[in-house]
Design a protein that fits this description.
Layout: E1 19-23, E2 27-32, E3 39-42, E4 71-74, E5 78-81, E6 113-116, E7 121-124, E8 129-130, E9 136-137, E10 140-143, E11 148-153, E12 159-166, E13 171-177, E14 181-185, E15 190-194, E16 198-204, E17 207-214, E18 220-229, E19 236-241, E20 246-249, E21 252-256, E22 268-271, E23 279-286, E24 289-290, E25 297-299, E26 303-308, E27 311-312
Antiparallel strand pairs: 1-2, 2-3, 4-5, 6-7, 8-9, 10-23, 10-27, 11-22, 11-26, 12-19, 12-23, 13-16, 13-22, 14-15, 16-17, 17-18, 19-20, 20-21, 23-24, 25-26
Length: 339
């Protein structure tokens, strides 16, 4: 029924692992590694002999690598040890286990991580870079005290992350709200009101504050506070993960969020809503999707974006040429200089 009953992570280069699978009438025994114990999985319906096809496929889907010493026993008596003569080769299946590191000729940008997948590679981009070869950078968006951004999604917002830079100590960075009308039963009528549940991310005296307002049967408010001052003219990263209830500031795990009484359906985000901050934003990602500000009014399949008094910085001092030596990380300051 397409369910995975055993999953393990193996990532040791140049090391062979033994996998043994024994199929019985009503259960399967699986062992990974010579010295490991078998795990038994019972099947409650008909015999496995009637369910399993008489075909074995190696290299299923995205697997790349080598297999050797393949031994198959069938009918409880006969055993086959696969040899070179029994293997049909083609461009995707060859004899031997020789290969070169797929990252050897990779085009990943210098500071980016290359993941070797045997016959191909992928670049793991360090934000704010993105793209197949990490050769593109998210633009810097400059804002002032008259700027405003509204983004409405067709589904609930599960995560948001962004870089920001400001010198002001007080102001709202973002506010997550719901644009969906909810039905509420009062004593004598059935009315439709917008939910007042919201999440606010703001700077107060230079410290980041996350305020969660749960408009459930019993209205509750929660607040998380960071000790680090973030209005120092340097870029800082905020990551809010609503699926796992986590707040991460500058890649440092801050605190676990309090689970609310009801699951909040927040599909509307407002950036810079109280017109109190000057500075810039970069690499805004919502639901792991990079938000583009190429047009002031943009409608896509899953969100609608409107912005006011938002300007894109044309010259990034850190891109495309990194002025820092020895692959140092270049950071753009509040004055569009670098450090």
């Amino acid at each position: 029924d397409n369910k995975t009953i055993l999953s393990t992570f193996i990532d040791y280069y140049e090391k062979w692992f033994m996998i043994s699978i024994e199929i019985f009438h009503l259960w399967i025994d699986v062992r990974i590694g010579k010295n490991s114990l078998s795990q038994r999985f019972y099947i409650s319906n008909s015999s496995l002999a009637n369910l399993i096809n008489n075909q074995i496929i190696f290299g299923y889907k995205n697997y790349s690598g080598c297999v050797r010493n393949i031994e198959i026993t069938y009918s409880q008596v006969y055993s086959i040890l696969l040899t070179d003569q029994l293997i049909e080769t083609n461009e995707n299946r060859t004899l031997g286990c020789e290969r070169t590191n797929a990252c050897q000729n990779a085009l990943c940008r210098k500071n980016e991580l290359c993941q070797d997948h045997w016959f191909y590679h992928t670049c793991e981009c360090q934000r704010p870079f993105f793209g197949e070869h990490c050769d593109q950078i998210a633009p810097i968006i400059k804002f002032n005290q008259s700027s405003l951004v509204n983004i409405v999604f067709s589904s609930s917002i599960l995560n948001i992350s962004l870089f920001f830079n400001t010198l002001q100590p007080n102001g709202t960075l973002f506010e997550l709200i719901s644009s969906i009308k909810q039905q509420r039963i009062t004593r004598d009528l059935l009315s439709q009101n917008r939910s007042t549940s919201k999440i606010i991310g703001a700077l107060i005296d230079g410290h980041f504050r996350l305020i969660i307002i749960d408009d459930g049967p019993k209205r509750k408010e929660f607040e998380l506070r960071s000790e680090q001052k973030l209005n120092d003219g340097r870029p800082h990263q905020i990551e809010l993960d609503l699926e796992n209830y986590r707040l991460i500031i500058d890649k440092i795990y801050n605190e676990t969020l309090m689970k609310t009484h009801n699951k909040l359906f927040l599909n509307h985000i407002q950036l810079l809503g109280d017109n109190a901050l000057n500075g810039w934003l970069q690499d805004i990602r919502i639901n792991d999707q990079l938000i583009s500000f190429d047009n002031t009014n943009r409608l896509t399949k899953n969100f609608n974006l409107t912005s006011l008094n938002i300007n894109q910085v044309k010259n990034n001092p850190c891109y495309p040429n990194n002025p820092c030596l020895n692959q140092g990380i270049c950071l753009v300051t509040h004055s569009q200089d670098y450090l």
